[in-house]
Amino acid sequence: MPTNAKAVLVVGGAGFIGSHMVLNLRRAGYQPVVLDNLSKGHRDAVLDAELIVGDMADTALLKELFARYSFAAVMHFASFIEVGESVKFPAKYYQNNVAATVNLIETMVKSGIKHFIFSSTAAVYGEPQYKTITEAHPLAPINPYGRSKRMAEEIIRDFAVSDGLNYAILRYFNAAGADPEGRLRERHEPESHLIPIVLQAAAGQRPNVTIYGDHYPTADGTCIRDYVHVVDLCSAHLLALNALLKGKKQLVCNLGTGHGYSVIQVVNAAKRVTGRPIETVVGQPRPGDPAILVADASLAKQELHWLPRYPDLDPMIEHAWKAMQKPA
Ligand code: UDP
To answer: How many whole angstroms from 56 Cα to the centroid of ligand 1?
Structure first.
């Protein structure tokens, strides 16, 4: 690592998207420093990048870190992300995704750091009022997870006014895939995300996949989502970082491919990619799940010249499958 590399604090860098970001930052010549409390992340996912085990709610630790390094920017991947869990335990979501995020932003701006990249979500939109969702769609989240992210977005905007914070808010649709070289993979415990669950069934690690409802107003009755490769999410973050460093002040954009796939289409793609049988059973709809979420991602293309490298579902599943073959 060159000594003049710009340091970037990656909060949540031991998690799925954060750990991929660390790889991508290093490849782009930055010096990522990971802050992760390891409540969801994995120590081995940071590979040989620098890891500080701690929490973004810990003001003293943040102050010490901001004094020790001269960070060019902070990237925040450290949110809780499970819709179902957020419905059951809202306080957990508001405490971490909102209160601890305020602490992170306040401490960084007080330390003179002005560039912030925030992982937001399509869940801020709620039930789509029209087909492909643009950033102008009303923000009407239907679960505590989405509400916690909308609140964090509002707080970021307030700090832009009060402290001159420059920000990129990136609203991911459904993050999927894995490092194509198989060094990292998606691991949540317990796993709740569709593609890893489907691949666990393909690998014989679970007997079947429960489809959460098949009476949605879609062609096959199952929910439709816009899956976006984690490598492409990372490339959008790098473009956003470069834009902020070159003077851009604010950016809010969707990250998706613009193509939706139903739960059944995902299962069929996984059968095709893995060549394995995958049994499904139909269960109850999951509370808080909208029927269809598909991005209009033209703004990211316009503003950042973002061009997803793996827009199709099969490579996302292929890379996730390849990464699963490696020992944990
Ligand atoms: N899903 C499902 N069975 C599962 C997990 C997820 O049918 O075991 C559905 C879920 O209802 C949603 C889609 O798959 O429509 C994607 O869910 P995931 O949890 O992966 O992401 P989310 O959309 O919640 O961000």
So the answer is: 28
The residue type found at 127 is E
Atom 3 (ligand 1) nearest CA = 211
**pLDDT band (50, 70, 90) for residue 2:** very low
From the CA of 253, how far away is ligand 1's center (Å)? 22
Residues near ligand 1 (Cβ within 6 A): 83, 174, 192-194, 197, 209-212, 223, 225, 263, 286, 289
Listed by start position, the domains of the chain span 7-176+227-256, 194-224+259-298+310-325
Ligand 1 atom with minimal separation from the 197 CA: 8
Quote the strand ranges of the chain, DSSP E. Answer: 7-11, 31-36, 50-53, 71-76, 115-121, 166-172, 174-176, 209-212, 224-225, 227-229, 250-255, 261-262, 280-283, 292-293
Q: What stretch of H or E contains 22?
A: helix 16-27
Q: Which residues pair with 32 in a beta bridge?
A: 8
Q: Which CATH superfamily is domain 7-176+227-256 in?
A: NAD(P)-binding Rossmann-like Domain (3.40.50.720)
* CA–CA dist 197, 216 (Å, integer): 21
- This prediction's pTM: 0.96
Kindly compute the dihedral angle of the four CA atoms of residues 196, 293, 235, 33, in this order, to the nearest 10 degrees. Answer: -60
Q: Domain 194-224+259-298+310-325 has what CATH class?
A: alpha beta
Residue 40 CA to ligand 1 center (angstroms) comes to 18
Mean predicted lDDT score pLDDT of the chain: 95
Cα distances from 2 to residues 27, 28, 29, 32, 160, in angstroms, run 12, 11, 8, 12, 32
Average pLDDT over residues 135-161: 97
